[in-house]
Amino acid sequence: MSKAKSKPKPKEKNKKSNRNKILCSIFVVFLLCMTGYVVKAQLYNPGKSALVGLQQKTPGPAEDNNDPAGINSDIKDEGPGEAEGNNEQEAAAGQNGQAPGPGGSAGQERPVFNGNYSNEKHGWGFKRNDSHQQPEMPSSITSMLSRHGAHWIGSPQSKVIYLTFDEGYENGYTASILDTLKANNVKAAFFVTGHYLDSQPDLVKRMVDEGHIVGNHTESHPSLPDISDGQIQKELQIVEEKYERITGRSDLKYLRPPMGEFSERSLAVTRELGYHNIFWSMASVDWLPMAGGPEEAYQAVIKNTHNGALLLLHAVSKDNTEAMDRILKGIKEQGYTFATLDDLVQ
Question: Which of 4, 16, 102, 303 could form a disulfide with 274 if both were Cys (CB 3.0 to 4.6 A apart)?
């Protein structure tokens, strides 16, 4: 006669229960660590939302394709809703004509790059410090950038700052920023999208007239590794054509990749099209209102200055605008001088 199975002893039940609790705890810790990593990655990649508010509140027919992938579909523009007309673009064409630069030849077909490079997507990020030293970047990334004429920082021996702004849409502050730059005798680079060229031709002309560099930030702000070589060419060429109609110039040669995302393929394709990709070594989450207002905007820059710094600011920021005069003077008081992207790449 077979014996009935004996019930597990209480001690064995406790062992199983404890083991399950340990496994659950490990899993919870793992989830928390991953969440922390994602948050940290966002903090170190302030260019991720570089085009917040690309579409205006009341976009006109010409603006409907500015966000085809829904990049900013859940973001509302709190700035001015009505875009300015661009009926002065044609009148500006043909004035101040210059020989085409490396990124020029607007309206002409150029051969699409036919290379064999990796399309692995990289997000922009680096390891900062609080001692005014240049941030750290993996050697594999710096060598890739160097191979394709891309830049993110200047010489560690030069007490120089390169000032750049991203312009995805106008929030009413760029004219004031230009006033402050002029008053402080500082030249900057403004990276503009197709939407910005459509809606703000007068400001773009003013940038050029006052000696600033205008750079290409693409027509519709896509992640370049996500689109084909031909689409990359089209994104850049549309901006070139709009820029030439407004300014009469065909000298675009600097590109800021949307969201700071790139691959070796996108670097190679855009270099073949005549562009230097320009990243950054200093930035902050400045496209949103800062809790500390202009003081926080000022401290975010002053506490992170370093030799050869390539500074990214967003011209949609009221805090940046109100702090701009103090930022420029504070940088100079630290012993830095300002230089241009032309100085950087020469």
Answer: 102
